[in-house]
Design the sequence.
C-alpha cells in the first residue's frame, strides 16, 4: 500500500512554513490540511482524522506540546503519527515531545525532500507493522487475519469466523492463560449473551482442525496457546 493519499495535518503559526510544507507534501501525493492555531487544529483533527500531524512547538495561544497531549486523548486518533518540526533544539524540548506521545522530532530549518522521504518511510514502517500483526506464524501453523485463512504444514483451509477469532486471539498471546469469561468478552463481546460452554465447543472444533498440540487446557482456569 502506497503512502500517497495519506492525510496530513500541518500545524504551524508561520504562513511561509505552512505554504512550503503544503506545496511539497501535495507534490508527493499527500492530502494536506494546514492550520496556524493549536486549539483549532485539535478540532480539525477530530473530523479530518489525519494519518499524520506535523506540529510546531512555539505557537501562540496553545503550544505544540499541549496540542499533542490533547490529540493523544482522542481515541479515534490512536494510530495517528505525530511529528514535531520545530526550531527548538534543546534536549528537554525533545524529551517533553516524546514523553507526551510524539513519534518523531525534527529541527528546523526544513529540508523538504528529506522531510517527505522521512514521512514516507514512517508510513511504510507502520504498514509493515500492521501486516506483521495480521500474520502470525508459529512452527507449521500460519494464521492470516486479512484473508481468514489458516495454513497448517502447507495445507490451507478456512475456519468459521468465531473459531478463527478464538484461534487468532490465543495465538496473539502465547503462553498466557485466559479464563472462559475472558475469551467470551474478547471474542463475543459484552453485548451478546453466550454460555461459557460455547468456548469449550469452539476450542474442540479448532483442535479438530489444527490438532491438540497448540491450544492447551489449564484445569480449573481456562485455555492458553502454548509455545514449546
Sequence:
Amino acid at each position: 500500500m502506497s503512502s500517497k493519499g495519506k492525510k496530513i495535518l500541518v500545524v504551524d503559526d508561520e504562513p511561509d512554513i505552512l505554504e512550503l510544507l503544503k506545496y511539497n507534501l501535495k507534490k508527493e501525493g499527500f492530502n494536506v490540511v494546514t492550520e496556524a492555531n493549536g486549539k483549532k487544529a485539535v478540532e480539525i483533527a477530530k473530523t479530518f482524522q489525519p494519518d499524520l500531524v506535523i506540529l510546531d512547538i512555539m505557537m501562540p495561544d496553545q503550544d505544540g506540546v499541549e496540542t499533542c497531549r490533547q490529540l493523544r486523548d482522542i481515541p479515534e486518533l490512536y494510530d495517528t503519527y505525530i511529528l514535531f518540526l520545530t526550531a527548538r533544539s534543546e534536549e528537554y524540548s525533545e524529551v517533553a515531545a516524546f514523553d507526551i506521545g510524539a513519534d518523531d522530532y525534527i529541527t528546523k530549518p526544513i529540508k523538504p525532500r528529506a522531510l517527505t522521504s522521512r514521512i514516507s518511510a514512517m508510513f511504510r514502517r507502520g504498514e509493515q507493522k500492521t501486516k506483521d500483526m495480521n500474520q502470525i506464524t508459529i512452527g507449521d501453523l500460519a494464521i492470516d487475519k486479512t484473508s481468514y485463512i489458516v495454513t497448517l504444514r502447507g495445507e490451507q483451509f478456512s475456519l468459521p469466523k468465531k473459531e478463527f477469532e478464538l484461534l487468532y486471539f490465543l495465538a496473539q498471546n502465547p503462553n498466557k492463560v485466559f479464563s472462559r469469561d475472558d475469551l467470551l468478552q474478547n471474542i463475543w463481546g459484552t453485548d451478546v449473551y453466550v454460555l461459557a460452554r460455547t468456548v469449550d465447543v469452539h476450542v474442540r472444533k479448532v483442535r479438530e482442525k489444527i490438532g491438540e498440540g497448540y491450544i492447551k487446557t489449564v484445569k480449573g482456569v481456562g485455555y492458553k496457546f502454548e509455545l514449546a
